[in-house]
Amino acid sequence: MITYGHEIYIRQAIDSILMQKVSFKYEIIIGEDKSPDNTRDVLLEYKVKYPEIFNLLLRDENLGPTMNSYDVFMKCKGKYIAILEGDDYWTDPFKLTKQVEFLEQHQEYIGVAHKFNTVNKSGIIINNLLNMTTFKNVNYNMKNFLNNIFPLQIATLLFKNIFLETNNKYEIIYQASPVVGDITLVMVLLDMSDIFIMGDNMSAYRYVNEIGGTNCSSIPIQKLRFNRIEQTFKLENYFHNKYSMSKWRTVNWVGLALLLFKDKNKPKRINQALSLLKNIKYKDALFIIMFGLKYIIKKSFKSGLLKLKQYD
Length: 312
Known about the structure:
By secondary structure, the chain is of the alpha/beta class. Helices cover 45% and strands 14% of the residues. Helix 1 links the parallel strand 1 (2-3) and strand 2. The longest helix has 30 residues, at 282-311. The chain is globular. Mean pLDDT is 84; it is low at 306-312.
């Protein structure tokens, strides 16, 4: 678990771990990233109550999400790793048991995930984001991932502890992006084997988009898209161009173009557009053109239907 500024959520997250019905031992390793609120005090309360279960990594300075995650991963000594960020929570007391039993019986998979609900700040289900409703009891592979089908929410994932290996430290987890590590981790895992997605709905992802928020959803969208594009280039290099992430970039190129088009600051808009053009690869440009044509045709078709209805 990593946490930063989660004072109002962290108890629910931890209690959802402690409610797990398991026949095996587990350890809760938490990287507390020098929160500006009382998150650390809450963690220390749990440490006093459950000294043998909790391993608290209390940062003297803020590391950032991916560096914090990487350090927590490197401290994991168990056979499997389950991830839960401080503002999300699990909803099924048999989540860990179901997932561990599955991997014990199906060693061909590197990990196992499941369906989830999206909730708002108050914990009310909103499900306005992809929640894997179309992915249940299926394999999730690299092809799905590269086609920008990304149904895995990190709090649903349990995977084999690859960090026990000594030949690869996986520094790419924080090198690819300072803020988003789930994409990198999933790609690293899928390079080894498939992930199975169970049909059980066993967790809640908290989606909060607000100025000054401490979660990824609150990062300004323009900054996040620039970061995502840079991340895809770094991942391609890490895998020695074994995989192309052009489809991932296309979504973000187009999203950035729309944001720049709306920007009223013309000089800034032009400079940013030129900086984008310098970095676009040939294959990316083809995908963008195809995406644009598809968008125009779709819009034109809808407009034509509307005129027909008006005519009728």
